[in-house]
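Customer escalation, tier 2.

The customer says the design service returned an amino acid string that "doesn't look like it belongs to this structure." They asked us to rerun it and document both sides in this ticket. The original structure tokens are below, unchanged.
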């Protein structure tokens, strides 16, 4: 039986994950692939689910806790999405405050469910404002340490860091911010993107399909 490609996209709240998933699902669908989306939120009111369903996408949700705490619910959601037809690709968006996706979700999927899922390199989306704050180069008030630690841990466990919302930046600002990210996380590739305009999404999908080494980082969350 063919495996389903599972693409997890992490990142802090407001980074643009839902917009990216909607754009990616549309592009994959245009290629003739059957796509499902799994959303995730701590509470029971999943606005993201409604937005994605409104675009005609097959969506299931995991609410009341993050994927790392409700791993079985993630598996159930994928089963429900495949009831009508097997999905070629599943796109999944962990809750914005989760920091240990790699060790609690990605690794178990690879170890125990390899016959069922082909797990893509783990992408973490970041917005320019949050990046500047967590890197200590923002003119704004610094983030509270607890929030900053979550943000940094998310970036540390990424296989790929996506600098999103580059449509809000000048060319020089993009170059500067990518350099700062590369300095802080030297072993992690950085890709620029505007999920809103669609710029960079095809490059991201091509990167996920490439032969680069998947060397996921397990962040120190102790």
């Amino acid at each position: 039986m063919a495996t389903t490609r599972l693409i997890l996209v992490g990142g802090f709240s407001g980074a643009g994950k839902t917009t990216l998933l909607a754009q990616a699902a549309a592009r994959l669908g245009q290629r003739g692939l059957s796509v499902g989306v799994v959303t995730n939120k701590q509470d029971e009111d999943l606005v993201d689910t409604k937005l994605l369903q409104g675009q005609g996408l097959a969506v299931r949700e995991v609410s009341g806790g993050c994927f790392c705490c409700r791993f079985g619910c993630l598996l159930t959601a994928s089963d429900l999405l495949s009831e009508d037809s097997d999905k070629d690709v599943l796109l999944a968006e962990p809750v914005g405050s989760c920091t240990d996706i790699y060790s609690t979700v990605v690794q178990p999927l690879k170890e125990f469910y390899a016959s069922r899922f082909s797990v893509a390199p783990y992408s973490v989306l970041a917005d320019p404002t949050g990046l500047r704050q967590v890197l200590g180069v923002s003119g704004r008030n610094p983030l509270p340490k607890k929030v900053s630690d979550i943000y940094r841990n998310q970036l540390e466990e990424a296989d790929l860091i996506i600098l999103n919302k580059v449509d809000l930046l000048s060319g020089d600002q993009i170059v500067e911010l990518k350099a700062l990210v590369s300095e802080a996380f030297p072993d992690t590739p950085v890709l620029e993107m505007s999920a809103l305009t669609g710029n960079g999404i095809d490059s991201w999908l091509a990167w996920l399909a490439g032969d680069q080494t998947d060397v996921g980082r397990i962040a120190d969350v102790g």
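Tier 2 assessment: The sequence is consistent with the input. The chain has one domain: 4-198. The two ends are 39 Å apart (CA to CA). Sent an explanation to the customer and offered a walkthrough call.
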